[in-house]
């Protein structure tokens, strides 16, 4: 695909937070962190497909054992996962990581503008040759209620 093509997406803040979470989950799975799956079941993000099933310790243990078998079949030792920078990481995982870092940084800076930490650092390490993702958050409500200096002066006179 040509590098000149650009995609713009307009989201609410809540949708952007979900997209960041989706990217983070994709990266975790792409690094071999399959222990995330039982957690997603526990949180009902991955629901049971039957009203007779419910999340209990027996169900979570069964899912965890299944994930451990898959993890082992992929050649991982218990508790092992790949790190970013590994030669086995798929390009899509790196793209999701870069999108995640930019989204989280922008969201954190918007919600807590005076706090600087690892979440506000943004995309420090690049893994792709892609154009760097951009994220700008607009507070249109604040813009609608904000008056220009000329409007304020006109009202006072």
Model description:
- The protein has six helices and no strands.
- The mean pLDDT is 88.
- The protein is mainly α and 157 residues long.
- Helix content is 49%, strand content 0%.
Low-confidence stretches: none
Rg on CA atoms, Å: 21 Å
Strand content: under 5%
Termini separation (Å)? Answer: 58 Å
Give the count of helical stretches: 6
Mean pLDDT: 88
Which structural class fits the helix and strand makeup?
mainly alpha
Helix percent reads: 40-55%
Query: What's the oligomerization state?
Result: single chain
Largest beta-sheet characterization: none
Could you spell the SSE succession in H and E letters?
A: HHHHHH
In total, the number of strands is: 0
Give the SSE map.
Layout: H1 13-30, H2 36-42, H3 57-73, H4 91-111, H5 140-145, H6 149-156
Helix pairs in contact: 1-4, 2-3
In short:
The chain is mainly alpha-helical and about 160 residues long. The chain has helices at about 15-30, 35-40, 55-75, 90-110, 140-145, 150-155.
Task: Give short descriptive properties of this protein.
extended; mainly alpha; 6 helices; 157 residues
């Amino acid at each position: 695909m040509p590098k000149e093509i650009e995609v713009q997406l307009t989201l609410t803040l809540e949708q952007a937070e979900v997209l960041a979470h989706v990217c983070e989950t994709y990266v975790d799975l792409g690094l071999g962190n399959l222990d995330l799956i039982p957690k997603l079941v526990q949180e009902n993000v991955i629901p049971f497909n039957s009203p007779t099933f419910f999340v209990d310790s027996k169900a979570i243990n069964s899912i965890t054992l299944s994930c451990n078998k898959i993890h082992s079949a992929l050649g991982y030792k218990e508790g092992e996962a790949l790190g970013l920078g590994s030669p086995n990481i798929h390009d899509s995982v790196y793209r999701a990581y870069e999108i995640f870092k930019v989204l989280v940084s922008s969201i954190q800076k918007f919600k807590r503008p005076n706090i600087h930490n690892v979440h506000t650092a943004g995309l420090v390490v690049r893994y792709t040759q892609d154009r760097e993702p951009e994220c700008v958050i607009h507070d249109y409500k604040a813009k609608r209620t904000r008056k220009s200096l000329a409007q304020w002066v006109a009202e006072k006179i």
